[in-house]
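Chain X:
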Amino acid sequence: MKTLVELIKENSNVSDYRIITDKLEAYELYFVHNTLETIRAVDSKEISVTIYVDHKKYRGDSTFTVSNSDTEEDIISKINNAVSMASLINNKKYCLVGNETLKGEIKSNFNDYDIKALGEEIYNVIFECTEKSRAQINATEIFINKHFRHIENSQNLDKEEISYDAMIETIPTFNKRAKNDSVELYSQIHFNSFNKEAFASLINQDLRDVIARGKAVKPDYEIKAPVILRAKEISEIMQSIILELNYSTVYNESNLYKVKDAIQTKPEASLLKIKLVGSVEGSSGSHLFDSDGFNLTEKLVVNNGVVKSYYGSNQYAQYLHKKPTGNFNIINLSKGKYSERALKSEPYLECVSFSGLQVDLNNDYIGGEVRLANYYDGHKIRPVTGISISGKFSEVINTIKLSKKTLTDSNYTGPTIALLSKMNIF
């Protein structure tokens, strides 16, 4: 049987091609309460092929997958179909990333463990935390992954990357005093290097949160206080900002911010400094290169609350006559100067769980329904539920105070909490 590349080259209508091969080796553990129910090993491969066709002044592309069961005739048929589809797409022409080779591995300490021992170590931390808590974890799923990615194209690009990650899904549960009355939360934790203390801290926080959820009531009093957001929501705010700075958004003339624009027009506290980075130890979003095969390093996009530059893919960089940076997965938000103790020294509403934080920059809005929050009135902390928050984004972002304590998650590294003023709570 001919190789995939040979079959592609036989089609004279193909102008360029890109092949991405992803291999996954995974070890999965499924627990119900403290009982290990299932162990599963995964060894899979997926091949994605993109065909590019130049027609008149345009370039079109179409992507298909190749499976192990595909015959030579099947692949030829898929190539022909992709050529037909690509011929209908009228993008401006651009060149692929080419004439580069790379073979690398994302830094991780997973190699220091036997994969089974790592799974056991992760679960032992969870078990130790629940043993000391009034809450329990009803279900736990542990996924430990090793990824192999290979990208090659018709322009002599040949790059390989090995990366690691773990995803831990848990359902923390708290049984209230009333019989058969319990509450649950859902938690998902990602990392690419295992730190026992940091992981235990996250599990303990989940257990404290579900206990608070069991005690939370809808307040029958008015709450007026600054709002504290955790890392997940901080990341979502920063993601909304940087999407406005992507080359594709700029090319389509739909970007709200332009270079030299002030995101914080009248800053009162922390000034935003946002970098986009390819890899960070601990982040499961780490990559050496993007899906075009463009090497990822870092790019400063916001400094002192002001837009410094755009970023984006090889394709849209060429359309805008800009230098490509690649498409990044990780936001690096610089830490603030405030201790968590200082940020929590006055009354506040710390949002623990949202139905979904909404950030609409075009309508100058930030808000959402809060399912669980901790309200500190200056004397004691009260868990509350059934409330909402809202504000004008342009005003709220000026008031942001960032913690100097940081953490690293799947696609974010930066302050653990942020305090925001000028938010309505109702």
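Chain Y:
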Amino acid sequence: MPLMFKPVEVFIGLRYVRAKRRNHFISFISLTSMLGVGLGVMALITVLSVMNGFEKELTERILGMASHATVVERGKSLSDWQTLAAEIEHYPGITGVAPYFHAEGMLTHAKNVNGTIVRGILPEEEPKVSVIADRMIMGKFSNLVAGKFNILLGKELARTLGVTVGDKVTLVAPQTNITPAGILPRLKRFTVAGIFEIGMHEFDSALALIHMDDAMRLFRKDGPTGLRLKTDNILTAPVVSRNVVAQLPGYFWVTDWTQRHANFFRALKMEKTVMFFILTLIVAVAAFNIISTLIMTVTDKQADIAVLRTIGISPKSILAIFMIQGTLIGVVGILFGIVSGIWLASNVETIIPAIENMLQIKFLSPDVYYISDLPSDMHWSDVITIGIVSFIFCILATIYPALKAAHTQPAEALRYE
């Protein structure tokens, strides 16, 4: 059995923690050390949970419109997309397939002009791969009917153009018409049939949806641009989509969500990692308090250490005694931080609104931020990692004071007693 776990060492180490000291300042430093470690652990768990919540919320909003993967045929439109979609739907992991038409254009209304991404869709198929039908704030998604040239606009795009449901807008396509008067841009009047709000500036400020038949007629295409796929797990979407394309007859390109938004999600991950290291410094500072506590305890217990040495306690046992004392201080603080951090992370979505109501303020104003609530998504892997890292800090903090106690010479310590 390792020396550090001998019963006598554990007994003495625990006694030094709970016994009344002559110097009450040491007890105060021990308490602040526990609280410091606890607050550091609590802050880490809470902040990382909130960052996980933001990442989850943003991922859901982005993938609610961007699809998990897209499949396009090399060099041409999909003329027989129905057959291809029916074949893809039978692959394991695929939960939805819908065609789409992609183009760029310019919308005008009165004196207002704004560039836009035009997406042609089929209203009966689109809900399989996106949440747009559930995000309508004005009008109806079903108003997209072939031949009526209706259009759905993002909230910010509609605000920029100064239009609402029922107004007319002109869509200018990059193709041209040759007329007796010369070369003129191709344009078409559309009726605003609905306004949606996704909660992402990328979509709300630049996306316009029209019926696919109207899009192909305006842009003179004979088929959709490609197919949008939805999988049962966004994490496996890259693998599933590539396996599907590898088994399709013909030449196809596949692009998944990790490629389309790679920089965005890489930035989120980097921000989370940096925040973890910054907040870990709180635990490191608290660990320095443990060093101070143990050094003062060693100085205060010089006579006790000398007596223990004279009755046969080895330096390794003295080392173990003070490491047990410092480790216990750290463990109590870590447990307090984990319990309080889990509670705070689990209830932050109700605590913050209560504070806002009490103070009559809004921390994340909906006029400024697309996500106005504070989401939280606690991961047990984060809690375990935080606990292990904090425990290692506390162990390291005990080494120097414990070594100093182990090197105490009985004769020197008892000279002035």
